[in-house]
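Chain A, query sequence.
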Amino acid sequence: MADNGSSRRHMVRAAMKAPYLERDEEHSLAVRWRERQDQEALHRLTAAHMRLVIAIASRFRHFGLSMSDLIQEGHVGLLEAAARFEPEREVRFSTYATWWIRASIQDYILRNWSIVRGGTSSAQKSLFFNLRRLRARLSRGAEPMNEPHLYEEIARAIGVSRDDVALMDSRLSGPDLSLNAPVVESDGASADRQDFIVSTAPLQDEVVGNDIDGKRRVIWLNRALTALNERELKIVSERRLSEDGATLEALGQKLGISKERVRQIESRALEKLKIELVRTQQDRAAFV
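Chain A, predicted structure.
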């Protein structure tokens, strides 16, 4: 921890000592780096803008990550800006570099703030980095807002759903919890937190029972289908037993009859199937 603080102080001191660049000198250094890959020009250009990196990194210190790491990530963004900067556009390097520095720091925070990855879309990133600020600003209004109304206003300002705001707020309000963390119950017994998570999956006996019943019904259905004539079987198979059921019109064109006639044949075939299934199976309730 002491090494971290010492490293940060060294970076700050070095940044403060670096001379400011006049516009013409900055342009000349950028041209030398872009056209000749002059390492000395790159060093002078980036060293002069480390103050900017430190200033931007300090805005994100409340996320609980090391300031030294934030500065280093900002430096990565500064180098990326130098690699992409086009001096002929007559834009100051600091203006161009600010976006790359901030983007690099924000990406680092999103990757390391929590073990659960979040904020993958631009709207989610905006929500992550602006939720606390917007919440504080809206809470300072003349009339205090209740939680749903507050979430609604934040969602409208950022362009996300109210549920997204509520979820992000809950994530920002507490640290990550391990599912293996022990929980002590009222009677003194202890268990892992994951033992209290309710599974929505069906029980194993239900899975096995449904599988057996499903196979049995397939056998019954195949036997009942033998009661249909060739045309009835074709219509039922293509309309009811295929993944993409054919339309009445498409089947009518294929069979050379009207779609109303296809509907009548289908209705009659289904009635025949029902009669056959009820006649041959004891479990009649499944087909009535």
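The first strand starts at residue 182 and ends at 184. The CA atoms of residues 247 and 274 lie 22 Å apart.
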